[in-house]
Design a protein that fits this description.
The protein is an alpha+beta fold and 129 residues long. It has five helices and four strands, in the order βααβααββα. 23% of the residues are buried.
Length: 129
């Protein structure tokens, strides 16, 4: 079994701005966003490339291009199982990417009331500045 993926990012570790920019750029294409959404819906088991292609209805060469882009950004991993190539969403890296933005929520607003809306991390949960 061979697994290909970008270096892991722990959930507590926010990606560097350059890595976050690369990941957001990878998600900036509607077909790549659909690939990731499909893999997220598939859960940790992932999907074989053929099943992914079937669900998305795109050409194999086009899917291969999108998978390379997403893998390079650390958003998915691929594992060879016999003759199948299984793709999985990199949930920890996706969570870290979301956290990259959430940790900055209300950073300049000041006061505890600024962190009182849903989705905003409290100052103790935010990144160290």
């Amino acid at each position: 079994m061979t697994t290909t993926t970008a270096p892991p990012v722990s959930q507590a570790e926010a990606p560097a701005p350059e890595a976050a920019a690369q990941a957001f750029a990878a998600l900036g294409s509607e077909p790549r966003l659909e690939v990731i959404r499909t893999l997220v819906r598939a859960g940790p088991e992932g999907l074989a490339v053929g099943a992914l292609q079937e669900r998305l209805g795109i050409a194999a060469s086009t899917l291969s291009h999108h998978l390379r882009f997403l893998s390079a950004a650390g958003l998915l991993s691929q594992e060879r199982q016999g003759r199948s190539l299984i793709c999985r969403a990199s949930f920890a890296n996706i969570s870290a990417l979301v956290g990259f933005l959430q940790r900055e929520c209300c950073a300049d607003a000041g006061g505890p009331a600024a962190h009182a809306h849903p989705g905003c991390l409290s100052p103790s949960e935010g990144a160290q500045r």
